[in-house]
């Protein structure tokens, strides 16, 4: 079981962190002072329905990935998660949020319990929210976190470890501590309920190794999840004869797939964990058809999800069908550039149309969370090909000029697909065409 900690006033510990020379090995006093002064106080946005409870002890710090952009993350952790029938949770789902640019937001004072871990267990202790600080990193568990996030997280962890007398092993990810009840993949209580922060690189945050094993799996309290075991615990003890040392041998697991695309080895459960059948989980099939997690079993069955299906978490149901079927995508609070384009968000063939009127390829982006809501994008396109007096839409796109996959950018900022244009003779000079990469056998005139 986790130890009860000797408690001393947090203010005294913070003073020792900042004012005793040589106490902090990783960061200088001036760096920590500056970091602390720049934390954004977001506590005024906390849902008034959230009931503050002071933690009796702090044994762990739990790192999460939000699976959303910054705006949506801050709203959800402070105001609450949407539930069925228009209801929502009362918020308070993290103590801190760290944006992609490294900015830190204090949502709830560290002394209070944040409702962040859900059904959870570590080393026999259940309900980890009661004994831990929750830190939310803006990002996805199947995508990279930024160097700025790791630097800010490293400084925040350095402070919190000293406040609560914790070691590096006391810092875990949500995916390590969450567990779930039986489901189609597991017959008993098991690890793997959440994939949250399974991409977390401890070394980049200045941390040493995590536990070499899962104590609750080893004790038989939970069944292991092969995907997470291959990420966090790559070795297992082999039973030795009396008097012989315990041998450590590698686990044998299938090749890891860290994407959000369904494959032979990357199942809905591997990607989404317990959210695999949630209404807010979107399954975008290769043909463009979109299903919510709650509809997959009835409509096609989990074992018939086609390879190539894209999985998105935390989506609004009314957005799903429109965004998947239409070539012109819209960045909103919940649908980021990563949601739409994945790793191709920075590709030359992903074109962004910003609200300011600027049009740029993905290569101009530093990060997918830098784009404002209202930005439109097309994925897998080349262009622009500009209409002139001698260069008509037909000459540029051949027989596909009126196809729904051909995108026209009209002066003034309007985007429209070829099948929506009634009279092409009225198109003014200066209209730009964007063609799917698959439609371009060679260079256009």
How would you characterize this protein structure?
With 445 residues, this protein is an alpha+beta fold. Helix content is 20%, strand content 18%. The chain has helices at 10-19, 29-37, 70-79, 147-164, 174-177, 215-218, 226-232, 268-272, 296-299, 317-325, 337-341, 393-397; strands at residues 40-41, 60-65, 96-98, 104-106, 121-122, 125-126, 132-137, 171-173, 179-180, 190-191, 235-238, 247-250, 282-284, 290-292, 310-312, 329-330, 350-353, 359-361, 376-379, 381-386, 407-410, 414-417, 432-436. The strands form seven sheets. A six-stranded mixed sheet has the order 1-4-3-7-2-8, sandwiched between helices. The radius of gyration is 25 Å and the shape is globular. The relative contact order is 0.09.
Report the helical percentage. 10-25%
The CATH architecture of the domain at 10-236 comes to: 3-Layer(aba) Sandwich
Span of the ends, CA to CA:
71 Å
Radius of gyration: 25 Å
Q: What's the helix and strand layout?
A:
Layout: H1 10-19, H2 29-37, E1 40-41, E2 60-65, H3 70-79, E3 96-98, E4 104-106, E5 121-122, E6 125-126, E7 132-137, H4 147-164, E8 171-173, H5 174-177, E9 179-180, E10 190-191, H6 215-218, H7 226-232, E11 235-238, E12 247-250, H8 268-272, E13 282-284, E14 290-292, H9 296-299, E15 310-312, H10 317-325, E16 329-330, H11 337-341, E17 350-353, E18 359-361, E19 376-379, E20 381-386, H12 393-397, E21 407-410, E22 414-417, E23 432-436
Parallel strand pairs: 1-4, 2-7, 2-8, 3-7
Antiparallel strand pairs: 3-4, 5-6, 9-10, 11-12, 13-14, 13-15, 16-19, 17-18, 17-19, 20-23, 21-22, 21-23
């Amino acid at each position: 079981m986790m130890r009860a900690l000797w408690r001393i006033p947090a203010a005294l510990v913070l003073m020792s962190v900042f004012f005793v020379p040589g106490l902090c090995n990783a960061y200088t006093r001036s760096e920590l002072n500056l970091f602390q002064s720049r934390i954004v106080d977001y506590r005024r946005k906390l849902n008034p329905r959230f009931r503050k409870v002071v933690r009796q002890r702090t044994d762990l710090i739990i790192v999460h990935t939000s699976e959303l952009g910054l705006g949506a993350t801050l709203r959800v952790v402070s105001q609450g998660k949407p539930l069925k029938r228009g209801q929502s949770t009362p918020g308070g789902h993290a103590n801190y949020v760290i944006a992609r640019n490294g900015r830190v937001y204090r949502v709830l004072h560290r002394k209070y319990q944040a409702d962040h871990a859900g059904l959870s267990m570590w080393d026999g202790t259940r309900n980890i929210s009661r004994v831990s600080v929750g830190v939310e990193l803006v990002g996805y568990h199947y995508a990279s976190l930024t160097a700025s996030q790791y630097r800010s997280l490293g400084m925040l962890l350095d402070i919190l470890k000293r406040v609560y007398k914790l070691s590096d092993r006391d810092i875990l990810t949500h995916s390590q501590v969450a567990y779930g009840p039986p489901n189609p993949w597991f017959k008993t209580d098991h690890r793997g309920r959440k994939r949250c922060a399974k991409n977390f690189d401890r070394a980049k945050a200045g941390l040493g190794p995590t536990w070499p094993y899962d104590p609750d799996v080893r004790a038989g309290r939970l069944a292991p999840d092969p995907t997470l075991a291959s990420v966090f615990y790559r070795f297992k003890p082999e039973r030795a004869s009396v008097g012989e040392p315990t041998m450590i041998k590698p686990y044998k697991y299938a090749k890891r797939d860290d994407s959000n695309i369904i494959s032979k080895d990357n199942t809905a459960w591997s990607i989404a964990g317990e959210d695999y059948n949630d209404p807010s989980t979107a399954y975008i099939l290769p043909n463009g058809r979109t299903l919510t997690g709650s509809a997959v079993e009835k409509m096609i069955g989990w074992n018939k999800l086609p390879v190539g299906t894209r999985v998105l978490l935390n989506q609004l149901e009314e957005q799903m069908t429109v965004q998947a079927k239409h070539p012109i995508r819209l960045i909103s609070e919940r649908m980021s550039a990563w949601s739409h384009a994945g790793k191709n968000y920075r590709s030359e063939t992903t074109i962004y149309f910003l609200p300011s009127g600027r049009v740029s390829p993905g290569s101009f982006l530093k990060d997918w969370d830098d784009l404002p809501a209202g930005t439109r994008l097309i994925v897998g396109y080349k262009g622009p090909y500009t209409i002139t007096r001698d260069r008509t839409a037909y000459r540029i796109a051949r027989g596909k000029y009126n196809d729904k996959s051909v995108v026209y950018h009209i002066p003034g900022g309007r985007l429209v697909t070829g099948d929506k244009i009634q009279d092409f003779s009225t198109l003014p000079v200066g209209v730009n065409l964007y063609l799917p990469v698959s439609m371009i056998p060679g260079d256009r005139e």
